[in-house]
Design a protein that fits this description.
Helices cover 39% and strands 24% of the residues. It has 274 residues and is α/β, with parallel strands linked by helices. The strands form three sheets. It has a five-stranded mixed beta sheet with strand order 5-1-6-13-7. Strand 2 and strand 3 form a beta hairpin. It is globular, with a radius of gyration of 21 Å.
């Protein structure tokens, strides 16, 4: 074999190795997280009441309540990293965070890219709209504009099932809701748990479609292949069932929003068991 060919083959091998190395998902084991003293958790910063920053600059919400307990039981501090819906996979693959607690709905497509732990919530899609032109069924949106956030199950569901609905997409939930308030869309779709809470705080808007599509689960996600942290999270969720932790989470973060007569069991999942 000629020398020039050997040189080219060697160069190609080096490039392939470098490419593979750069594209391998990075993650830290439980022991590495404990040794560092800090667990990095991706959460929403603008999706009240599940993950948001309050007026004092502190992270709050149902997901954050769980994040605090995770850090406590790991014996470390917690660093919250704000994330947009479309970037939840990326922040894991690039090693920016150890896990995601950002209303991450479990889907087969996502499960190919990240590893989901046991669920701690359940939900379906909902659609909120102005009372003056209430959307009561998906067909009411044909030929109209529906507001969604990029990278969400709402975007996927309407793209696949209702092609006549025009989608107006935003990176951040706050931008999406502002668009609805400004009248730039006939409605907005995301998890029903979230739109129901938003409608309560915004008179003049109602969730005309309270449950759309299949019943889904929401779970923590870790980088693909991080069995150490995945196993730890699964055991953590199972052990918390004895104290009904997620019901306590609901009372602390969601009861005030949904009201005294709301049913925690409609949302809460204990021990990872539906």
């Amino acid at each position: 074999m000629k020398k020039s060919v050997l040189v080219k083959l060697a160069a190609t091998a080096v490039l392939l190795t470098a490419f593979t190395s750069c594209n391998q998902a990075k993650f830290r084991s439980v022991e590495e997280i404990k040794k560092s003293g800090t667990v990095k958790i991706a959460v929403f910063s603008d999706k009240k009441p599940f993950g948001y920053v309050d007026e004092y600059g502190k992270y709050q919400g149902y997901d954050v309540f769980f994040g605090e307990r995770i850090a406590k039981d790991l014996g470390v501090n917690v660093k919250y990293v704000p994330v947009e819906a479309a970037a939840r996979v990326e922040v894991l693959q690039t090693g920016k965070v150890d896990l995601v607690l950002a209303n991450f709905t479990v889907t087969p497509a996502r499960a190919e890219k990240v590893d989901f732990a046991l669920p701690y919530m359940k939900c379906a899609l909902g659609v909120v709209s102005n009372d003056k032109d209430l959307i009561k069924k998906p067909e009411d949106l044909n030929g109209k504009t529906l507001i969604v956030s990029k990278g969400t199950t709402a975007e996927t569901f309407f793209t696949e099932n209702y092609p006549e609905v025009q989608l107006l997409k935003f990176d951040q939930y706050s931008e999406a809701y502002n668009a609805l308030l400004d009248g730039r869309g006939a409605g907005l779709s995301t998890d029903n748990t979230e739109v129901l809470a938003w409608a309560i705080e915004n008179p003049g808007f109602t969730v005309g479609i309270e449950s759309l599509g299949s019943l889904d689960t929401i779970a923590p996600a870790v980088t693909k292949g991080n069995e150490s942290l995945l196993n730890w999270l699964n055991e953590e969720i199972k052990s918390l069932a004895a104290e009904k932790f997620f019901h306590a989470d609901y009372e602390a973060t969601l009861r005030e929003v949904y009201g005294p007569n709301s049913d925690a069991d409609a949302l809460v999942v204990e021990g990872g068991q539906l």
